[in-house]
Design goal:
Strand order of the largest sheet: 1-2-3-4-6-5
Structural class: alpha/beta
Number of domains: 2
Order of helices and strands: HHHEHEEEHEHHEEEEEEEEEE
Helix content: 10-25%
Shape: elongated
CATH architecture of the largest domain: 3-Layer(aba) Sandwich
């Protein structure tokens, strides 16, 4: 493939954002002239793929609109929000600008665009604060641009073979975190959409949807290559009284490597003889788990320490459903005390 880098720094580098935004359509006209020359020499619109960052995402949309949406693909990396939010489709990126439009939203509460703009829109960590980015203004310039730029680094990670980020179509980030959207139920090879370069594997499936737009959510680690690995922790309890709290789970393999997941975005409700399925996210994928630890917490600092009585705990991998599921029976967790145990293979389901 031929890769063309568009450098419009002389137009974009200004502290007056309005001026930079006002030049986006002029840049699009220049790019169309360039693409026209490519077409005259035998190029095909089907094979043209534009990747635009921030204002560049809307520039890509303007170019696509000039070709009546016949460009092969546009990827928008955290499309700019200020001055574009609420604008009609002809004044921003939208799904009709190319045959396939995918978008990564990483800063929807500041510099990025909140609403969907493509055939599929990815929201890492809900599209808000990205892990590893400064949380306060004392982080300096990174505080303002880190979340916005994370979309670029997430896309780059999709080009590396050691990190395949899977996203989960869902109505909301909360539903995703609560484990309600981890089965895509599609007939194709990929069980769920892949972020970045290979997002177009879902193109044909998305075109059959009405409307042909999908929001997909996922979480990332703090550092490159950002991948996280999803497991379900199924807990069946036998407490007489209802218990509400958070669960922390740690995994360790025979080599001593450990990885931890804190499931604390909202308290889980444990009832007698009721199974709770919690979505755990780890930044390492341990092939053979030798030990598991669980810790239960209600968040209360004073008062009695509650106990959570578990009839059965089951750990199952979403990334590798073919792996054996791991179980443990008859556990009692004392609040804020880590309980370590060796799991056993769960019995296979009888057909």
């Amino acid at each position: 493939m031929n890769v063309v880098v568009v450098d419009w720094n002389r137009g974009a580098t200004t502290v007056i954002y309005n001026q930079a935004a006002s030049k986006t359509k002029k840049v699009a006209i220049v790019l169309k002239e360039f693409i026209d020359q490519m077409l005259a020499k035998g190029a095909s619109l089907d094979n043209i793929y534009m990747i635009g960052v921030s204002l560049g995402a809307h520039i890509s949309g303007f170019v696509g609109e000039m070709y009546d949406g016949q460009l092969g693909r546009i990827t928008g990396l955290d499309p700019a929000g200020p001055l574009f939010t609420g604008k009609p489709p002809q004044d921003r990126l939208d799904p009709s600008d190319a045959q396939f439009v995918d978008v990564i939203h990483s800063d929807i509460d500041a510099l990025g665009y909140r609403e969907p703009l493509g055939n599929i829109d990815f929201y890492p960590n809900g599209g808000l604060d990205q892990p590893g980015c400064p949380k306060t203004i004392f982080g300096g310039l990174q505080y303002f641009k880190c979340d916005h730029q994370r979309s670029v680094y997430l896309y780059l990670s999709s080009l590396r073979e050691n990190c395949t980020i899977t996203a989960y179509p869902c109505d909301s980030y909360r539903d995703y975190r609560n484990g309600k959207c981890v089965s895509c139920l599609t007939p194709q090879k990929e069980s769920c959409p892949l972020l970045g370069y290979y997002a177009d594997h879902w193109e044909d499936y998305l075109k059959d949807q009405d409307p042909p737009m999908t929001k997909a959510f996922f979480d990332t680690a703090e550092e490159k290559p950002f991948c996280m690995y999803h497991y379900f922790v199924d807990i069946l309890t036998w407490n007489k009284n209802i218990r509400r709290g958070d669960i922390t789970i740690k995994l360790r393999d025979k080599a001593g490597s450990t990885t931890e997941s804190k499931i604390n975005h909202e308290p889980a409700t444990f009832q007698k003889y009721h199974q709770v399925s919690l979505l755990a996210r780890f930044n390492q994928d341990l092939d053979k788990v030798a030990a598991i630890s669980l810790m239960f917490s209600t968040g209360s600092i004073i008062g009695p320490k509650y106990k959570l009585r578990i009839l059965r705990m089951k750990l199952r991998s979403l990334a590798h459903p073919e792996r054996p599921q791991l179980c443990r029976y008859d556990l009692v967790l004392t609040e804020n005390i880590e309980t370590v145990f060796q799991p056993i293979l769960c019995p296979k389901l009888q057909m």
